[in-house]
Amino acid sequence: MPELPEVQTVVNTLSPRVTGATIRAVTLHRIDIVTPIGTDLVKHLTNRVISQIERRGKRIVFTLDDGNRFFIHLGMTGRLTVESLDSEILKHTHLIFDLHDGSQVRFRDPRRFGGVFWLGSDDPAGTMGPEPMTLRADELFAKLKKTKRFVKTALLDQKLVAGLGNIYVDEALHAAGIYPKLRADRLNRQQVEKLTVAIKTVLKRALKHRGSTLRDFVDADGLKGAFQKLHRVYDREGKPCLTCGGSIKRIVLGGRSTHFCPKCQKRSK
DNA sequence: CGCGGGCCCTGTGAGC
DNA sequence: TGCTCACAGGGCCCGC
After folding, report:
1. How far is CA A237 from the centre of its chain?
2. Residue with CA nearest C1' of nucleotide B6
3. Which sign does the torsion angle of CA A234, A236, A238, A239 carry?
4. N or C: which end of chain A has fewer CB within 10 A?
5. CA A23 from chain center: how many Å?
C-alpha cells in the first residue's frame, strides 16, 4: 500500500489534526506491534504533546514535547486515521491515542507488516538512503554503480533511496524508458539522468492525486487516493501501453510483480 | 559481504 | 454457493 506519496498524504492529512495535540490516553491492543520488544509505549506517550509529525522514507515520524521520537510504519495494509469516539472500532485496530479534543488516532493493520517503532533520541532516518524528491543524478549514478542487481530490485532497496516501492519503481522505469532487468551498474549517465527526473515526476503527480488506492490505502480522513487511475504500467498486464500501444508485460523479480512495456523499455541500451 | 529466497500475516478474488 | 489457491503497496533474516 504505502509508498512515499501515500505516506506523505497520510502525514498531510494527519498533521493539522494532531500537531500540538495532547495524548490523554493510549490503548495498545497488541504489544507485539511495538519495537523494541518490551517498550512501555503507554508510559512514554501518555500526557505528552505531539509537537511535530513528518515523513522520512516510508516512516511517519512523531516528535514529542519531551524531544523523544517514535515512528509508525504502515507495512502493506496499515491505516492511520483520525476518528470520533463513537465510530466503530474495526477488527485489527492495534493502537489508539485519545486526544484532548475528544478525537482518536487509530492504527489498524490486518497483516501486521507495519508497526510502531520507539526511537527515543535515535535518528529517524536510521540507515535509510536519500529522499528521492531531492535526489541528484550523480548521487544515484554512484549508488547504482555499486550493485549488480536488477535496477528494479536496487530501487526497492530503502538503503539506496528511501520511499520508493513496487508501484512507483515500475512507473518511474517506464517513464524513463528503462528495462527493469537491466543490471543497475550498467546504466549510463543519460539513463540515470532520465531516471532521476522520472522518479520525481511520477512521485509529484502521485502526490497531487493523494496516492494510489489498490485496495487498502486511505489517508487520515479515510479518503482513498486517485492515482491508481493514472498508472501507466502497474497492474495493467495485457493492457495497451498508453505511450506506444504495445502490450504491458508482467514478470516476477525478487518475488515482486514487475510491470513494463517491452517496446518502450527495451532490453538493449 | 552482497544478494536471493523464505518468511512474517490476513483478506480477497479468481477459478474450479 | 463454497472451497482452494495465488497473490497483495514491505522488509527482516538467513544461508550461500
Report:
1. 23
2. A255
3. negative
4. C
5. 25
Whether A113 sits with its Cβ under 7 A from any strand B atom: the answer reads: yes
Nucleic strand C under 7 Å from the C-beta of A2: yes
Task: Answer yes or no: A180 catalytic.
Answer: no
For domain A4-120, which architecture applies? Alpha-Beta Barrel (3.20)
Q: How far is the CA of A155 from the C1' of B3 (A)?
A: 14
Q: What is the pLDDT of residues A141-198, one digit of tens each?
A: 999 999 999 999 999 999 999 999 999 999 999 999 999 999 999 999 999 999 999 9
Q: φ and ψ at A76, to 5 degrees?
A: -95, -40
The pLDDT of residue A116: 98
pLDDT tens sequence across A213-247: 999 899 999 999 999 999 999 999 999 999 999 99
CATH placement of domain A132-260: 1.10.8.50
Rg (CA), chain A: 20
